[in-house]
Amino acid sequence: MEIMTLITAMLPIARRRLVTLDMVAPVTEAAKLLSAPNTNLVIACDSGGLMAGVLTKADIVNQISHCTGCGCVTAIADIMTRDIIKCCPEDKLRDIWEVMKNKALRQIPISDSHSRPVGLLDASDALQVLLKEVEYEEDLLRDYVMGIGYH
Fold it and tell me: What keywords is this UniProt entry annotated with (predicted)?
């Protein structure tokens, strides 16, 4: 019996990690958000609240090196990554973990069916849940082999 956690189970913590910003906001505003502890990704949204791109600390550092630091008026739309790798609440956590692992992503946006951001899945949170799944499966197998039966 394989346990399949869905992304929807991760939404409570993923909602707390979600940081969004209007895509016309200046890079300096994104830099302020990204300077907060445990904030590594900002989701840029269009005027309708739909995901338009993502922005990382590396994007900010790269841009600041080209302009005059806090005087930078470049909009995040000009430097964000528009090709968003995302997941949906109905996706299986194990499948999304494989995507994160293969693409070396620490975080991945979670969107609803209309492409509105609803959370940000962090690799450490996903890994904790997946490890608990494996431990539970091992317990089930051990109990079965020992003749105790299933839980």
Answer: CBS domain
1 in a structural domain: no
Secondary-structure percent of the chain, ordered helix, strand, coil, rounded to 5:
45, 20, 35
Which range marks the domain in which residue 85 is found?
7-145
Tokens representing residue 122 in the block = 């962090």
32 within a domain of the structure (yes/no): yes
Cβ atoms < 10 Å from Cβ of 90? 9
| CA dihedral sign, ordered 34, 39, 41, 45 | negative
Q: What is the pLDDT of residue 91?
A: 97
Does 56 map to a domain? yes
Q: How far is CA 75 from CA 26, 27, 144, 146, in A?
A: 4, 6, 59, 62
**Spans of the chain, pLDDT less than 50:** 1
CA distance 35 to 61: 12
User: Per-residue pLDDT tens for 38-75?
Assistant: 899 999 999 999 999 999 999 988 887 777 655 677 89
What phi-psi label fits residue 69: left (phi over 0), alpha (psi between -120 and 50 degrees) or beta? left
Please check whether residue 103 is in contact with residue 85, taking contact to mean a CB–CB distance below 8 angstroms: yes
